[in-house]
Each structure stands twice: as structure tokens, then as C-alpha cells.
Amino acid sequence: MSKGIILLAAGGTGGHVFPAEALAYELKARGYSVHLVTDSRAERFAGKFPAEEIHVVPSATIGSKNPVAVARSLWTLWTGMRAAKKLIQQLKPAVVVGFGGYPTVPPLLAATRLGVPSMIHEQNAVMGRANKALAQRVQAIAGGFLPENGGAYPEKTVTTGNPVRPAIIEAAKVPYRPSHAGEPFNLVVFGGSQGAQYFSKAMPTAISLLDDELRARLRITQQVRPEDMEMVSGCVAKLEMGADIAPFFTDMAQRLANAHLVICRSGASTVSEISVIGRPAVLVPYPHALDHDQAANAAALAATGGAKVIPQSELSAEKIASILAHVMNDPEKLARMAAAAKQAGKPDAANLLAGMVEAIAAGRTVAEFKGTQS
């Protein structure tokens, strides 16, 4: 018999949905029923999400200065809040947990107005706009990188880390094995839906600049946008090298586990997954990210020695080639970086976050929850 219903709310991107998915698995293991509120963009993730039901509630972001557009967005938010209120009254959840993104605003506002216990999880080192709007209203704030003793709400903030999917926890069991001279070198390159274009252009050129011996060792996994597939695949064919090129990899956790080096953007989920598995990385923060959250996420891992951070404005194909040549000839350095990254990882984040959810459901304060953790 279910202990009760937990309602999770998440925006429709992987960065919001993946931590919610990891928490959902943990809550279900503890005997709860889980429902998800999101928008239509999350349908591609819906097949794997362990929810009893996925609910789509109208929502909108107020990004325009056009009065008509603002009025339309406010009306959509109002409609979404009414729909969310009806859903919450029907489900009677013990807690409503938001994971960021504008689709979380209607259900969290409805929950706080109905007096249902509520909390938010912020995966980035800088709080997003939706969570900023909700932070004052909710009982608790969990953070992937947020400091407990800083920020606007230290009394209700707990640094739980970012929950990672079961596949990542499984991949973390694979020890890092350095690649020595003459051995295959597994390079994983990805950039998310917005950030992959730069790597599609830069990586083939960088690889062409390597000497034949190093290039022969490379085994590349590279995520590219569908529109860049033909170009990148053509370049790889000309270079006559081993590479898997695709818009999406369902076994990315295993590929990260096998990686000797990762070159990628620094979204919160990415940084968390790399550190839990423990792999050395070159992080290139997406330069157009709101609030420069990717730069802050990258800095957190770089501070431990687990990653090197290079702004895109300072990166070139020549620099990538130089970095590859250096690290491929220095396996001990990569092994040290891998160990430092793993040291920074928080594999217990889903368990800690689930405990926090249960505490809020039971009416305990964040201070009381922290007391049970010390």
C-alpha cells in the first residue's frame, strides 16, 4: 500500500527532468506514489519516468516587454494555476516538489495557496528565475550547488547535491583506467540541445591537427545536432578514425564510464554526473546561459581539481588539439583529475533529497531535518 502521493513539477528539459526522475525512483522504492506535472516538451522523457501519471498544465514565461504578450502569459499562468489547484485537490499529495523551469510555477503557487507542504530543488549554482519567484513561498530549498550558509534563504536551504539516474550510479562502479601510449583513448564530447553546435565545428578540425599516432588512438563519442550529422560524419570519414556520432545516446552513462576524457558544456546535471562517475573533463560553459549558471557550475568542479574550465571565447580548434596532445601523453594527470572529480561527487543526493521530502511531508522544519543529518 502506498505511503501517499508526492507530486513532482519540472520544466521540460533534461536538466530539470533528470533530477526529478532520480528522486522519483528513490521515492517509489520508499513506498510512495509519484505523479509528475510538466509541459509538452517532456514527452520525450515520459517513457522512462517512473510516475503513476504525467499531467500537462498550461504555463508560460513572462519574457516579453510587449503588453499584449505579457497579458497573454499572465492569463496562461492563471489558467495553469487553476488547473494545478484542481489537480492538487484531486490527488491530495503529501508534498509538491518543484525542479525549476516555468512549468513549475502554477503547481507550486497552487500548492502554497492551498497550504500543501512544498519545496524546490535548484540544480545550478545560481538560482533560476522560476525558483527565485517561488523561493520565498516554499518551506524548503534543496540545492545541487547552492551554499547552505549563503544566498537569500540560508535558514531553509540544504545542499543535497543533484540526484543522478540509476544508470549513473551503476556507471560510477567502473574504476577509471588510464590510457597509456599506444592504447585506445576514449573521448566523449557533448553539448546538450543548445550547446552542441560549437563542438560540431571545432572538434573535427582539432582532431585533424593531431599527429597520426595520437589520432589513431582516439575513439570518439560525439553528440551532434541532427542538422550537423552529415557534416561531422563526413569529416570523421575523411579522417578515417573510430567514432560514434549521433544526436542522442541512450547508453551515455556507460560511455561516460568508459571515457578517458570528457569535453562538454557544464549544465548542472552534466557536472553532477561527471563527478559521481569520476571522470576528468574540459568544461566549456555555454556562453549564452541565463545568469551564467554554467560558468558557476563549472567553477565548483574546477575548484576540486576535477576539471579544467575554458570559456568558449578563449577556445579554438588549435587549443583543443593542444590539450588533447598534452593529456593523451600524461595519463597520470588524467587519473588525478578523475580521482578529484569523484571526490566531489554526491552519489547519495537522491537519498538525501528523498529524506528531506519526507521531513517536509511530516511537518518538520529544515533546521530539524539538518539536525537529523549531523
Helix tally equals: 16
- Flag low-confidence runs: none
Structural class by sheet pairing and helices: alpha/beta
Strand order of the largest sheet: 3-2-1-4-5-6-7
* Total beta-strand segments: 13
Q: Could you give a short account of the major beta sheet?
A: 7 strands, parallel
H and E string: EHEHEHEHEHEEHEHHEHEHEHEHEHHHH
Radius of gyration: 21 Å
What coarse outline follows from CA principal-axis ratios? globular
Give descriptors for this structure.
six-stranded parallel β-sheet; 374 residues; alpha/beta; 16 helices; 47% helix
Element layout with pairings:
Blueprint: E1 5-9, H1 14-29, E2 33-38, H2 43-46, E3 53-56, H3 67-91, E4 95-98, H4 105-114, E5 118-122, H5 129-135, E6 140-143, E7 157-159, H6 166-171, E8 185-190, H7 192-208, H8 212-217, E9 218-223, H9 229-239, E10 242-246, H10 252-258, E11 261-264, H11 268-277, E12 281-283, H12 293-302, E13 307-309, H13 317-328, H14 331-344, H15 349-361, H16 366-373
Parallel strand pairs: 1-2, 1-4, 2-3, 4-5, 5-6, 6-7, 8-9, 8-11, 9-10, 11-12, 12-13
